[in-house]
Amino acid sequence: MPGRHASEAVRRAQIVKAAYHVAAARGLDRVTVRGVAAKAGVSAGLVLFHFETKEQLVIGLLDWLLETTTVLHVTQDIARIPSPVKRLLALLEQEMDRLSSEPRRIRLFFEFWTLGIRHAGIRAKMHRELSRYRAAFRHMAGEVLRAEPDRFLGVTAEGLAAVAVSFIKGCAVQSMIDPGRFDFGEYFAATQGLVGQLPRSGVSGLRSPRARVAAGSRRPVQG
């Protein structure tokens, strides 16, 4: 019946979210069916009903993590920015802020990356999703190159998209290494200097409250 299927989907999501909290707090190697069941407030048997083995549970967690991490949403505000360079910078700012705000999620993401070295299925999933995330930047990167061909001589849209993703992932890694001292405002100011050569106040006006607070503590970058 539809109601029962919906209930099972909700329960499965609840179990995966519990697995995330266990893995984020203790690491992937400490994830157990009993531990996840206790966190979700359900029986171990119910966890095994939805995920027949611990490996299936971990794969389910990976699928959820990728679906909620390597997704790119270009807002209407960003899409309406007329300058291709400013539009790309606004998207970089959005993604840097989003991913650096959850260092535990990024640490778990890289745990999966390491696990993928010896697990072909995990490696294939991560490669596919990261490639899709990078491809999402390709169209905007192409617009930048067409608008300002002299700025990026010898650079392809694929190359510029890859560098954009590198800035985002690098920002996330820095926030993971030392979240207490990580300064998003400084990191993005450096990105502007390297990529855009634009004043801080002239990029997007789309900063989140956390980013605006960080930006307010820094002096404007000279263009």
Characteristics:
single chain; mainly alpha; Arc Repressor Mutant, subunit A; 0% strand
How is this structure best described in words?
- With 223 residues, the protein is mainly α.
- It folds into 2 domains: 2-58, Homeodomain-like (Arc Repressor Mutant, subunit A), CATH 1.10.10.60; 70-216, Tetracycline Repressor, domain 2 (Orthogonal Bundle).
- The chain contains 12 helices and no strands.
- Mean pLDDT is 85; it is low at 198-223.
* Helix percentage range: over 70%
Strand content: under 5%
According to CATH, the fold-level topology of the largest domain is Tetracycline Repressor, domain 2
What is the number of beta strands? 0
Low-confidence stretches: 198-223
User: CATH first level of the largest domain: which class?
Assistant: Mainly Alpha
In total, the number of domains comes to 2
Please summarize the sheet with the most strands: none
H/E element order: HHHHHHHHHHHH
CATH architecture group name of the largest domain: Orthogonal Bundle
Which structural class best describes the helix and strand composition?
mainly alpha
How would the global form be characterised? elongated
Quaternary structure annotation = single chain
Distance between the termini: 62 Å
Count every helix, treating DSSP H or I runs of 4 or more residues as helices: 12
pLDDT averaged residue by residue: 85
Q: Determine Rg (CA atoms, Å).
A: 20 Å
